[in-house]
C-alpha cells in the first residue's frame, strides 16, 4: 500500500498549469487594467459611506409615495408599455428575415450570398452597438417628440438584439432534419422554414420575451429624451424635488417590469410545452 | 470480388424477392469509381462501384468508418464526391444542376440512423414534409396549411407504418422506434422508387429494430420499392436483403447474393 501511494505521489499531476512568462505578464497587465478602471470610474468607499445618510434622507422625503396624479401616471405607464410592446413586435418581425440572411451556413456559398451575409451582420451589429438612447435622440430629431420616436428606437434596438441571437440559434440547430429534407428534394427556403426555424423556435421565444422585458426597462429611460412614456414624468418630478411623486413613479415602473418578467416567464413555459403544429 | 458459396439462410428469414437480375431489369442506382477524402489524410472512399437494380433489396455492410454512410450520402450528392459518377434512375446526377438534382432526390426516400425528424412539430407535419421535393411552398410547411389531399396522403402513410393514432403527437415525444417509423412514413410520402436507409435500426432496441426491418421488407415486397440499406447486424443484412455488399477501408470487397452467404463470410469484413 505504501508502495502504491509512493508511486502515485511521484506521478501526481500539477493542480494548475504553470503559466509561461508571457501568459504571466498578460495576467499582471489585466489585473493592473482592472484596478486602473476602478480608479478611472471614481470608485470611492468614503463617498459610498458618506452617501448613506443622503440616501436615507431621500427615502424619508420620498415616503409615503404620492397618489395625487395616479390616473395621469397610469396613463403614462400604459403608454410606456405600449411603446415597448409595439417596438418589440416590429423589431421581432424585421429581425427574423434579417437573421436568416445573417446566419452562417443556411445559404449556398456564392459571392452574392456571402455579400448579403456580411451586409446583414454589419447592419445587425450597427443596430445592436449603438445604444437605444442614441437611437431615441435620432428619432426625436427625425419624427419629433413623443412615443413614436421611442417605439422606433425600441424597434431598432430589438432588431440588433434579436437579429444576433436568432441568427446564432439557427446556426446552432442540429443539422439532421435539414439534411433529411434536402435529401427529400426540398429547396433552401422550405428547408429553412420547415427544419431550421421550428428547431430554433424555443430560442426565438426566449429571446423575444427577453427583448420585451429589456424594451420595457428601456422605454422608461427613453422618456428622459422626450421619446414618450413615463420617463419624462420621472425627470420632471426629480427636477422639482417632488420625491414623493418620484417614488410613486419608481414603484409603478418596478411593478410593471416585474409583471412583464413574470408573465414572460409563464408565457415562455406555456409556449415551450405547448401542443405541436 | 469475393463470392462466398455457403448457403445459410435462416429458417425464420422472410421470403425474399425473386432475384431481379433477369434480363430487362433496370438499374436504379449505378455508382462508379466514387472517391471522397476528408482532409489530406482521411481517404474515406477509394473507387467505390456498385449497382442496385429495380425492386432489389441490397445491404451494405462494413465496420465503423469503412465508408458506408459517406457512400450513401455521395450517392445522393448530400456530400459532393471528388471523383466518380452516380447514375440514379438512368440520370447522371454528378452533372445535374440544382433543380434537376432536387427532382431526382424527390424520388428517393432517405431514412437516417437518428431519424432526423423535425422536433417540436407533429408527426403528421413531419410526414407532410416528405412532399416538399415535389411541391414546395407554405402549403407543405405544416399540416395546418396543407391541403386536404396532402393531409389525407400523409395520414395514409402514417397508417401504413401503424402510427395514425399518433398523428398529432410531437415528434420529440415519440419513442425511438415510433420516430423511425415516422421517418419511413415521411419517405413514403415521397412516393419513392427507392429507399436508402443509413443504419436505420442502429439506435433502436432489438424489438423495434425488427419491426422497422419488417416494414422495409413489406415495402420492397408489396410495393416494389428498391431498398439499399447499411447495417452492422449481419443476421439482418442476410435476412432482409437479396444481395450484400461489403465495404472495407473505402473499397467494395464483397458483392454476393445473400442466399450464398453465411454469417462467418460477412463477419470477416469487420475489423
Please give a quick description of this structure.
Chain A is mainly α. Chain A has eleven helices and no strands.
Describe the structure.
By secondary structure, chain A is mainly alpha-helical. Chain A has a single domain (72-272), classed as MetI-like fold. Chain A contains eleven helices and no strands. The longest helix of chain A is centred in the C-terminal third of the chain and has 35 residues, at 188-222. With 271 residues, chain B is an alpha/beta fold. Chain B has a domain at 1-104 and 227-271: P-loop containing nucleotide triphosphate hydrolases (Rossmann fold), CATH 3.40.50.300. Chain B has helices at 68-75, 98-105, 123-128, 148-160, 176-189, 206-222, 234-239, 263-267; strands at 27-38, 42-53, 57-61, 83-88, 91-92, 108-111, 194-197, 226-231, 243-248, 251-257. Chain B has a six-stranded mixed beta sheet with strand order 6-7-8-3-9-10, sandwiched between helices. In chain B, helix 5 (176-189) packs parallel to helix 6 (206-222). Chain B is globular. Chains A and B meet through helix 8 and helix 9 of A and helix 2, strand 6 and helix 5 of B.
The CATH superfamily of the domain at 1-104 and 227-271 in chain B is P-loop containing nucleotide triphosphate hydrolases
Report the CATH architecture of chain A. Answer: Orthogonal Bundle
> How many domain units of chain A?
1
Q: Name the helicity range of chain A.
A: over 70%
Strand content of chain A: under 5%
Range of strand content of chain B = 15-25%
Largest sheet report of chain B? 6 strands, mixed
Number of helices of chain B: 8
Amino acid at each position: 500500500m505504501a508502495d502504491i501511494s509512493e508511486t502515485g505521489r511521484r506521478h501526481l499531476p500539477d493542480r494548475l498549469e504553470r503559466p509561461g512568462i508571457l501568459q504571466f505578464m498578460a495576467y499582471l497587465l489585466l489585473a493592473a487594467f482592472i484596478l486602473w478602471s476602478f480608479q478611472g470610474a471614481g470608485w470611492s468607499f468614503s463617498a459610498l459611506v458618506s452617501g448613506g445618510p443622503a440616501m436615507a434622507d431621500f427615502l424619508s422625503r420620498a415616503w409615503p409615495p404620492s397618489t395625487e396624479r395616479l390616473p395621469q401616471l397610469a396613463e403614462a405607464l400604459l403608454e410606456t408599455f405600449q411603446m415597448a410592446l409595439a417596438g418589440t413586435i416590429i423589431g421581432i418581425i424585421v429581425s427574423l428575415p434579417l437573421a436568416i440572411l445573417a446566419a452562417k451556413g443556411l445559404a449556398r456559398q456564392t459571392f452574392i450570398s456571402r455579400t448579403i451575409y456580411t451586409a446583414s451582420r454589419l447592419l445587425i451589429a450597427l443596430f445592436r452597438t449603438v445604444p437605444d438612447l442614441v437611437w431615441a435622440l435620432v428619432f426625436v430629431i427625425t419624427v419629433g417628440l413623443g412615443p413614436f420616436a421611442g417605439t422606433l428606437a425600441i424597434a431598432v434596438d430589438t432588431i440588433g438584439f434579436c437579429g444576433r441571437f436568432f441568427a446564432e440559434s439557427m446556426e446552432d440547430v442540429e443539422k439532421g432534419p435539414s439534411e433529411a429534407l434536402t435529401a427529400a428534394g426540398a429547396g433552401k427556403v422550405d428547408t429553412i422554414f420547415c427544419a431550421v426555424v421550428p428547431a430554433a423556435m424555443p430560442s426565438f421565444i426566449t429571446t423575444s420575451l427577453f427583448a420585451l422585458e429589456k424594451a420595457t426597462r428601456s422605454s422608461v429611460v427613453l422618456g428622459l429624451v422626450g421619446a414618450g412614456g413615463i420617463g419624462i414624468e420621472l425627470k420632471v418630478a426629480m427636477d422639482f424635488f417632488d420625491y414623493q411623486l418620484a417614488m410613486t413613479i419608481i414603484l409603478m415602473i418596478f411593478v410593471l417590469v416585474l409583471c412583464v418578467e413574470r408573465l414572460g416567464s409563464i408565457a415562455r413555459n406555456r409556449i415551450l410545452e405547448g401542443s405541436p403544429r | 470480388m469475393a463470392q462466398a458459396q455457403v448457403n445459410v439462410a435462416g429458417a425464420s428469414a422472410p421470403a425474399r424477392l425473386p432475384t431481379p437480375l433477369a434480363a430487362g431489369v433496370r438499374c436504379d442506382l449505378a455508382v462508379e469509381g466514387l472517391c471522397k477524402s476528408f482532409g489530406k489524410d482521411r481517404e474515406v472512399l477509394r473507387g467505390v462501384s456498385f449497382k442496385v437494380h429495380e425492386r432489389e433489396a441490397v445491404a451494405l455492410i462494413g465496420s465503423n468508418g469503412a465508408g458506408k454512410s459517406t457512400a450513401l450520402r455521395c450517392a445522393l450528392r448530400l456530400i459532393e464526391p471528388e471523383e466518380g459518377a452516380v447514375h440514379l434512375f438512368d440520370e447522371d446526377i454528378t452533372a445535374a444542376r440544382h433543380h434537376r438534382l432536387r427532382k431526382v432526390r424527390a424520388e428517393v426516400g432517405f431514412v437516417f440512423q437518428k431519424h432526423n425528424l423535425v422536433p417540436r412539430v407533429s408527426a403528421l407535419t413531419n410526414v407532410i414534409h416528405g412532399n416538399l421535393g415535389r411541391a414546395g411552398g407554405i402549403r407543405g410547411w405544416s399540416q395546418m396549411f396543407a391541403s386536404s389531399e396532402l393531409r389525407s396522403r400523409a395520414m395514409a402513410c402514417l397508417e401504413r407504418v401503424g402510427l395514425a393514432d399518433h398523428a398529432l403527437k410531437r415528434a420529440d415525444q415519440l419513442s425511438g422506434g415510433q420516430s423511425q417509423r415516422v421517418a419511413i412514413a415521411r419517405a413514403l410520402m415521397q412516393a419513392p422508387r427507392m429507399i436508402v436507409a443509413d443504419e436505420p435500426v442502429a439506435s433502436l432496441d432489438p424489438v423495434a429494430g425488427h419491426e422497422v426491418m419488417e416494414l422495409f421488407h413489406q415495402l420492397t415486397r408489396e410495393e416494389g420499392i428498391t431498398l439499399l440499406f447499411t447495417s452492422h447486424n449481419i443476421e439482418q443484412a442476410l435476412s432482409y436483403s437479396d444481395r450484400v455488399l461489403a465495404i472495407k477501408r473505402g473499397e467494395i470487397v464483397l458483392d454476393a447474393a445473400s442466399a450464398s452467404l453465411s454469417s462467418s463470410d460477412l463477419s470477416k469484413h469487420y475489423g
